[in-house]
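Batch manifest, entry 17 of 40.
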Amino acid sequence: MELIIPAYRMHSQGFMNVLEGISEEDALKRIDGKTNHIVWMTGNFVNMRYGLGAVLGLSVEDPYNELFFQGKTLDESFKYPSLEDLKKSFHEISPKVYQRLWEVTDEELDEIFEMGMNIPFIRETKLNFAGMCLGREDYMSGQIGLMRRILGYPGMKYDVDENLKY
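Output type: structure tokens
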């Protein structure tokens, strides 16, 4: 957890920073119909937080799970939540998961959590799932950062808000 907790906290900060100033209108734009939009990317990021919380034993469910679970493909016929609604969900789940990360035991983290990956060098445990969640968050943040620039926004700042406690 010495690696997971600081990374989780920095991902929370990065989430806030990468979305700073993006309009609701721009958050739904796709590039040449080929990219996911920022709302989808944000929803996927938040869904990872809910998933991690559930695997760590929290009784939580993403209100938008049917849109984002397991990186469900963007479907333009769906009505996606607003960026603001997704930020609210982020602020609801993130402190709960953060607290749980501080409480979880090594024994719990070593429990098998079958992900169905069938990759011989990955032991499917709760700890490895947490690591994969962080990897997915990194990926989503990078994608949003790229979309920021494509849409004409300045690059993401790396400011740290010490009042953000999760």
